[in-house]
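Anyone up for a design puzzle?
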């Protein structure tokens, strides 16, 4: 079945987490879902028979890989650009909550329990959090979470805050009518301190948007909320997976039950323009990665986060 969507795809040129500018190509896009049970591939193959008028090629996101692949390679008349390779993290709810708990070492569980206890004590002995799932609740969620998102590191520095455009909110409300949304807010008494927004597709809960107040970073409120949400979803007993989507990080690795090597692969016609774009983007990606690693090594990212906090 043809499930490609033709749309302009942005190639972001950025240094560390700061986007400098974007260039666009019209490409056909699709994503591999966890429920597809696709076998890992040894080399991507452009589906040239599905190329439509106006398209420069294809993008496949979350494509399972049998092994790491070269960043740039040639496949016939196409240039294959492995834009990102990562361990795709997810939780398999089918293993049951007791077995899920056993995946954590005693030291890790002790650390998580200590964070929960510390936050509970901070809140006066009770952790308050809410689940939002129907249209009326979703309207309230966006009103509260959007105000919180404006203060977060995720929005102010990375530009990855909870969307506030009318079309997105209306679509979320419509999906909630079909029980295809879960949204959560963690509170410190009456103050919202962290949110998590999760669309649901084919019984897979998607890690959509997570944000937290920089004032509460030291209390690990993102971890606290994720733990409470994960426990509740296990107890609901109706979902197959929690999909942490693209990219990897310590938060995702901590909570995941499984990881699989995946890539976001771009397959474009080998024109001079496309070759120049791909090679320039790959160069900037490497430069950005090296800069990010240097900032981490010298603690500069943590300083930037604190600066965002104090400049509110």
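Challenge accepted. My sequence:
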């Amino acid at each position: 079945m043809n499930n490609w969507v033709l749309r302009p795809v942005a190639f972001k040129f950025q240094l560390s987490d700061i986007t400098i500018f974007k260039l666009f190509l019209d490409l056909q896009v699709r994503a591999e879902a966890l429920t597809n049970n696709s076998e890992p591939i040894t080399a991507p193959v452009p589906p040239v028979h599905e190329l439509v008028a106006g398209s420069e090629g294809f993008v496949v996101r979350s494509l399972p890989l049998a092994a790491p692949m070269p960043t740039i390679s040639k496949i016939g008349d196409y240039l294959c650009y492995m834009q990102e390779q990562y361990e795709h993290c997810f939780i398999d709810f089918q293993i049951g909550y007791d077995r899920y708990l056993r995946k954590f070492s005693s030291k890790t569980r002790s650390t998580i329990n200590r964070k929960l206890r510390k936050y509970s004590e901070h809140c006066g002995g009770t952790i308050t959090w809410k689940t939002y799932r129907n249209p009326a609740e979703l309207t309230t969620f966006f009103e509260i979470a959007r105000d919180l998102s404006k203060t977060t590191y995720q929005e102010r520095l990375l530009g990855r805050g909870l969307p506030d455009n009318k079309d997105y909110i209306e679509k979320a409300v419509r999906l909630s009518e079909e029980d295809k949304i879960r949204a959560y807010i963690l509170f410190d008494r009456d103050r919202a301190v962290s949110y998590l927004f999760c669309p649901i597709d084919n019984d897979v809960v998607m890690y959509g948007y997570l944000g937290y107040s920089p004032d509460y970073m030291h209390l690990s409120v993102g971890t606290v909320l994720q733990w409470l949400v994960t426990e509740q979803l296990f107890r609901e007993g109706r979902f197959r997976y929690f999909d942490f989507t693209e990219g990897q990080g310590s938060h995702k690795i901590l909570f995941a039950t499984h990881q699989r090597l995946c890539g976001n692969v771009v397959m474009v016609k080998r024109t001079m323009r496309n070759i120049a774009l791909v090679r320039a983007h790959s160069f900037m990606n490497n430069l950005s990665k090296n800069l990010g690693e240097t900032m981490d090594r010298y603690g500069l990212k943590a300083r930037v986060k604190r600066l965002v906090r104090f400049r509110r």
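A detail worth pointing out: The longest strand covers residues 78-92.
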